Amino acid sequence: MRSFNKEKHGALPSGQVEDALCAYYRAQRPAADEASERAVVAAVVEEVRNMRAERAVVDEARCLRAEMSPVRVARPTFSACVRAVSETASFVAAQARFMGARAWILQACAVAAVVLLWSVGEGHAASGLYACLAGAAIAVCGLPDMAASRMCGIVELERSCMHDARSVAAARMAVLACSNAVGLAAVALVGAFADSAAGAPVALLHAFAPYCITVAGCLAAARRIDGASALVAAAAWGVAVAAGAYFLAAKMPGVYDQAAVWVWAAAAAAAAVWAGCEARAWLADAAASPRMLSFDSSFINR
After folding, report:
1. What residues form the membrane-spanning segments (predicted)?
2. Domain coverage including residue 248
């Protein structure tokens, strides 16, 4: 780096060196106008369209070859299946190590806050409300790790690796699903202890329905909004879900009674279907959508 002289400035702490590097590369980055950005996006869209056309031609040729000379496909052996499962598990474990403990710590804080609220609240409405708040909070805690590749602008790099961007997104979803399952189970156990009349299944339904609604809304917002604003919009959706749960507790407390369990079961089923659709759309966008290539450079050079 020509603008940095070690003999002049001496040895700097690691934090100041990082700030100096960020300032240098921020100054060297050329200013991008709207026309050039639009040209890059158009080139990427055209390249993706060509790739899909070539893939369609190759698939059609394979189908014609299979019809003309059918070949018996060998079934995978047990050892091959075991090897594939082992490679997938090791890849998911690597993603868990890369993601770190941030999601776990945030979920632990959310569960601890709910336990504190449960210790001062009474009644079915209060217990159901706290379970709803915990479910929404647990869902929001994993969003920064889910959108890390897009926020840092490395989706295009991941698409060129052996484990592409879709595999990375699926592995992170699996890790977050495991951690969220632990958090929801903890909320259900605490709810059963705080309200023994309702039990753990009711508390789990009260937490699972807003959890799925929050997950689906956060993924939808993150897919449609560019840059760091996606995280803000997703957090705002989580707050809206929590506000809706509080409105139900204030205006219609009977919704949290045991007689309305079937309502929560239906809401949880519908929300789970919505969350599954949004997760599938997220994986599809991570694999081929040009929209996932856009990112906010200020998030990286912050």
Report:
1. 103-121, 127-148, 169-194, 200-222, 229-249, 261-283
2. 99-300
